[in-house]
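FAQ

Q: What does a record look like?
A: Structure on top, sequence underneath. For example:
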């Protein structure tokens, strides 16, 4: 007979499904921390807001070892230094412990602060399939005053891509000539495969006319633009989660399995460099993310 100690079968199944869902949510959150899709400070804030959430029920030990470059030895030293018991969950930390953890996290994982001066040169970068192209297209549609740069590439066009609109599709010899003549503001071999570059002339013309320009380029290109134009505003687009990033890449269906894993390897390195960017925007919703990008235009 069902009683408190022996609940009905249907309740036991529901409880076990709930426990599995909670474990999955914590595993996904740990992946996001490891891949740097989410800032550790954000996870702590979520844990404080809702101690029953995936963040709140995450063990402090699991939280720390999910962070890049923290093994078990380092984890135990940090816990001793912060005077936090290893059995604690993030949502169960006391006020002093939260404060100590916050100070330690800010020192180790500094968060970008807003820039004081704004430039009319915006650079949008981020891992593969996060939605840079989609967000940039939404900016172009809703803000025709912003010039979206059209890059040159040696990659062949995908079905539906139009020369001069999505890219200037060129062969290697033509790309070499553009580089030799200094016609590119920046250029790079992306995902160790094809070359991409930003034509300099349309950008200089638009900036001279007082327009804002948006470049949608990779991390190497973003670094080159920063070197050439230190006032450029660098924006890093983040996915809502690592799992969602993988699912967008697979769902787009434009790369085979080998190319997808090459792109995900690059993505890991790009996420690790997000600290070099002035602003981070999460692309959970295209219209909102595009509005946030456009709001950074002068
Ligand atoms: N906010 C969003 N929610 C759901 N799906 C999205 C969102 N933004 C983009 N996508 C989808 O994700 C896929 C990848 O988007 P997109 O091609 O714009 O990425 P990308 O960052 O430009 O990729 P790459 O760097 O590989 O060129 C597309 O199928 C797109 O429709
Ligand atoms: N450095 C540059 N990177 C660029 C440029 N144009 C696009 N890109 C980046 O390449 C990858 C792959 O693009 P895909 O269209 O083949 O999926 C993506 O990260 C783009 O942002 C550029 O001019 N310079």
């Amino acid at each position: 007979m069902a009683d408190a100690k022996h609940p009905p079968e249907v309740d036991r199944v529901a409880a076990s499904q709930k426990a599995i869902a909670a474990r999955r949510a914590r595993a996904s959150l740990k992946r996001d921390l490891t891949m740097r899709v989410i800032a550790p400070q954000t996870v702590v804030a979520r844990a404080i807001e809702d101690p029953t959430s995936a963040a709140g029920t995450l063990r402090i030990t699991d939280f720390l070892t999910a962070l890049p470059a923290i093994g078990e030895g380092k984890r135990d030293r940090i816990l001793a230094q912060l005077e936090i018991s290893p059995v604690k969950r993030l949502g169960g930390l006391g006020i002093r412990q939260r404060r100590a953890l916050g100070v330690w996290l800010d020192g180790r994982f500094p968060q970008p602060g807003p820039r004081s001066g704004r430039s009319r040169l915006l650079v949008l970068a981020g891992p593969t399939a996060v939605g840079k192209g989609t967000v940039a297209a939404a900016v172009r549609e809703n803000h025709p005053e912003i010039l979206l740069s059209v890059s040159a590439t040696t990659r062949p066009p995908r079905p539906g891509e139009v020369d001069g609109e999505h890219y200037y599709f060129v062969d290697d010899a033509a790309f070499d000539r553009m580089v030799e003549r200094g016609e590119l503001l920046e250029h790079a071999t992306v995902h160790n495969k094809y070359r991409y570059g930003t034509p300099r002339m349309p950008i200089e013309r638009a900036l001279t006319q007082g327009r804002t320009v948006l470049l949608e380029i990779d991390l190497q290109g973003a670094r080159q633009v920063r070197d050439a134009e230190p006032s450029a505003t660098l924006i890093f687009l983040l996915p809502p989660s690592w799992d969602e990033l993988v699912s967008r890449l697979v769902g787009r269906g434009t790369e085979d399995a080998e190319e997808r894993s090459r792109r995900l390897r690059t993505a890991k390195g790009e996420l690790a460099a997000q600290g070099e960017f002035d602003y981070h925007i999460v692309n959970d919703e295209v219209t909102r993310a595009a509005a946030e990008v456009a709001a950074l235009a002068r």
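Q: Is there anything notable about this one?
A: Residues 5 and 12 are 11 Å apart (CA to CA).
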